[in-house]
Amino acid sequence: MIQLDEKRSESRREPLWQDEFSVFTERERFVNRRQLIKFLTLTSLGMFAGNVWILIRSWLRRDQTYPRQEIAHTGEIPVGDVKLFHYPNAKEQCLLIRTSDDNYVAYSQKCTHLSCAVYFSREDNQLICPCHNGRFSIRDGAVIQGPPTRALPHVVIERRGEQLIAVSMSGKLEG
Amino acid sequence: MRRKTALDGIVALVILLLIVQVWVLSATLDAFLAGHRDAALPGAITGGVLFAATVGMYWFALRIDRAG
């Protein structure tokens, strides 16, 4: 122990790299453990900062309001066909699908896996992501197969006369 | 030797805490992106407690260092 302390006091005069990569095995192991704990603590701080960031974002988004936006007229698209529109802003592209004579559904076109654009397959009656073959249900946007784990964000549509109006979204993706 | 064992124990414990913290962060992020914003506060509190425990372990390691 005394020898170790002597070596340590000698090393104070050494450059940092010699201090950190000591020729004395015992000391080197000791320093490395301490540095590892320090690095792990900083990693923990980074992850805590991530949690705080999520908390702040969730507070900021809590009061988010969606605009009411006319997206189509009834009869504008045939049964089984699709219309593209932007909602709630010009950056977010969405799909309006007429599933039957009287039924329309709308989802974000951005896959919840890696944000590729999904398309509607009439043959499979599913929304498919061509990048990794993720498949979503046309009924509720739920994942049927593939790498995505979250459902497609759903655009809530209101029908007023012949107008189809987007009023809000559920499960909105970030970014 | 006892100091080395204590530091080994601290490293093992901190790694364990970090694994739990990675899980908490990924679960909170997944819930947030799915639109479940209520998970953010418990996630942040748990993350803070785990970070405090890691800092405590680091402080303990420094104390061992000073005692040596």
Given the helix and strand composition of chain A, which structural class is it?
Answer: alpha+beta
- What fraction strand of chain B? under 5%
Outline of chain A: elongated
Q: Say which CATH homologous superfamily of the largest domain in chain A is assigned.
A: Rieske [2Fe-2S] iron-sulphur domain
Shape estimate of chain B: elongated
The beta-strand count of chain B equals: 0
Relative helix content of chain B = over 70%
Overall pLDDT level of chain A: 84
Multimerization status: heterodimer
CATH topology of the largest domain in chain A: Rieske Iron-sulfur Protein
- The tally of domains of chain A stands at 2
Strand order of the largest sheet of chain A: 1-10-9-4-3-2
- The ordered string of helix (H) and strand (E) elements of chain B is HH
Topology (elements, then pairings):
The complex is a heterodimer of chains A (175) and B (68).
Chain A: H1 2-11, H2 16-20, H3 25-62, E1 69-73, E2 82-86, E3 93-100, E4 103-108, E5 119-121, E6 126-129, E7 134-137, E8 143-145, E9 154-160, E10 163-170
Antiparallel strand pairs in A: 1-10, 2-3, 3-4, 4-9, 5-6, 6-7, 7-8, 9-10
Chain B: H1 2-33, H2 40-67
Helix pairs in contact in B: 1-2
What does this structure look like?
The complex is a heterodimer of chains A (175) and B (68). With 175 residues, chain A is of the alpha+beta class. Chain A has helices at 2-11, 16-20, 25-62, and strands spanning 69-73, 82-86, 93-100, 103-108, 119-121, 126-129, 134-137, 143-145, 154-160, 163-170. Chain A folds into 2 domains: 2-62, no CATH class; 69-170, Rieske [2Fe-2S] iron-sulphur domain (Rieske Iron-sulfur Protein, 3-layer Sandwich). Helices cover 30% and strands 30% of the residues of chain A. In chain A, the strands form 2 sheets. A 6-stranded antiparallel beta sheet of chain A has the order 1-10-9-4-3-2, with no helix packed on it. A 4-stranded antiparallel beta sheet of chain A has the order 5-6-7-8, with no helix packed on it. In chain A, strand 6 (126-129) and strand 7 form a beta hairpin. Chain A is elongated, with a radius of gyration of 28 Å. Chain B has one domain (2-67). The model of chain B has no long low-confidence stretch (mean pLDDT 89). The radius of gyration of chain B is 16 Å and the shape is elongated. In chain B, helix 1 packs antiparallel against helix 2. At the A-B interface, helix 3 of A face helix 1 and helix 2 of B.
